[in-house]
Amino acid sequence: xxxxxxxxxxxxxxxxxxFGYSQFRGNQEAIIRNIIEGKNTFVIxxxxxxxxxxxxxxxxxxxGTAIVISPLIALMKNQVDQLxxxxxxxxxxxxxxxxxxxxxxxxxxxxxxxxxxxxxxESLTKEETLEFLRKANISFVAIDEAHCISEWGHxxxxxxxxxxxxxxxxxxxxxxxxxxxxxxxxxxDIQKNLQxxxxxxxxxxxxxxxxxxxxxxxxxxxxxxxxxVKSHKGKSGIVYCLSRKKVEEIAELLRVNxxxxxxxxxxxxxxxRMANQDAFLNEDAxxxxxxxxxxxxxxxxxxxxxxxxxxxxxxEGYYQETGRGGRDGLExxxxxxxxxxxxxxxxxxxxxxxxxxxxxxxLLLQEMAxxxxxxxxxxxxxxxxxxxxxxxxxxxxxxxxxxxxKFEAQDDVVLAxxxxxxxxxxxxIDHISAVLTGMKNQYVESYGHNQLEVYGKGKDHDIQxxxxxxxxxxxxxxxxxxxxxxxVLKITEKGLNFIENPHSIxxxxxxNYDEEVAKEEERQENQTASGHDENLFEMLKGLRKKxxxxxxxxxxxxxxxxxxxxxxxxYPTTK
Length: 575
Ligand code: ADP
Ligand code: MG
Ligand code: ZN
Known about the structure:
Layout: H1 2-19, H2 28-36, E1 41-44, H3 52-61, E2 65-69, H4 73-85, E3 90-93, H5 99-110, E4 116-119, H6 121-124, H7 127-135, E5 138-143, H8 163-170, E6 175-179, H9 184-193, E7 200-203, E8 211-217, H10 221-230, E9 236-240, H11 244-256, E10 261-264, H12 270-281, E11 287-290, E12 303-308, H13 315-322, E13 332-338, H14 340-349, H15 355-373, H16 378-385, H17 398-401, E14 406-408, H18 410-422, H19 429-436, H20 442-446, H21 463-475, E15 479-482, E16 488-491, H22 493-500, E17 506-508, H23 513-532, H24 534-551, H25 562-570
Parallel strand pairs: 1-6, 1-7, 2-4, 2-5, 3-4, 5-6, 8-13, 9-11, 9-12, 10-11, 12-13
Antiparallel strand pairs: 14-17, 15-16
Bound molecules: adenosine-5'-diphosphate (ADP), magnesium ion (MG) and zinc ion.
């Protein structure tokens, strides 16, 4: 007990002494303790929550050198510079070093002076690196951005999959893996690949309560964009586009509209990229228009809005990118423009990729499309996607603020659940909807599902409708998806109870953006009519003539009659 307390003081004082912080955040302390005890540790924490400290501090307390594996040279350099500034001996090993620099790092590591050695996965796999690491006294291995291991993550890096084998060749070392990507699928992949099923898992909530999520149809997008950005005049914001060309175009569009905007993408000269990033960080520019190349490791606390001009490729990516807004805990607005055309375009991009990769990206895109189409609380959907239960509606997203009318779905939910049971819990969402709508396809026929009592029972609705019902039922946990098995749907205890004792359940109809756009256009047309309504003109003309006759004046003067002006502005234009 006493020892523990002493350790307590030691960790806290180290935190203050080296990093200048007086408190640990969230799970940091428990995580640090776990790794100090030599246990494998798996940390899942949102971006900006403070993952780095979870390996930096133990590295200082333990004997020897901690290896930190990080995917980007820029990230490594950032951290090393920062640690050096704190007076910590941290170094990196990557392709940017000269031979003599490399040798110096190796010497200082073997002698035990280096407390943190940052290594790119490519360097790690080199035989000479291995040889040298075997000579060093390594305290533990930290694998930062561990989602790079998984094809289901948004930054898959094949070299990451070799890390485990290499660690084994160095010695029997504790591992701490860290990521901000928390889908159950990715989490499982990481643990499997790193063979750390028994690791202590520290997962923080992914709810970013200060972020407002909003999806709008991609319609007159440029106009909407300008209006939106101008309504945040002088505030920091990021606009993500999918292509470099689009980045340039949008940056230019904003500039000609008096917004201080700069482009950022991998096709720009490194010096320009740096300059633009710095200008954004130093507030010489308000808006950075970028591809997803921008942002990893960027820590600007007061980004007030994040716009996805194009539909993102995955919910993970979307969550990461929106996560760069409101890091100071204040207002953060996340606006995404969505169109199914974007989804189709993105699907085409991955056409030439290997089959599994192509199927993966297709599934991720479908999830993205469902998120956008759904009228369910965005936060609930996001958190569910990350395996986190969120019962109520958040009240702080577009779907909560402008709720769609709900419909009674008791019978349809029973029907959907029954279909899952009758097809023996061996199929995914598309098949369930196919059976319900009475589709004739290869699977339906070869499994004899056209003989089931539920076959065609839902044919009054289309596939989209049933997909939406099933998705909402998943959110309410009447069903669950087997993530290891192609998203096969399984019924839960709660679902079984529902079939036996159904009760009223309200679901929301998906957005139909085409319809919404048409309505909005109609509304706007009526609005502009207040200025140019034909009826109004006709009426004025009539009045003009009449009054001109009465007062014997030329008609145009009458427009100066205040009562007439008043009449013109109060004339009701919307029916
Ligand atoms: P992550 O890797 O989880 O995205 P970082 O490790 O980059 O987050 O940390 C984000 C920010 O939080 C950094 O500016 C860091 O200095 C700060 N930070 C981390 N831990 C603490 C703490 N205990 N107290 C105050 N600030 C902290
Ligand atoms: Mg980090
Ligand atoms: Zn909500």
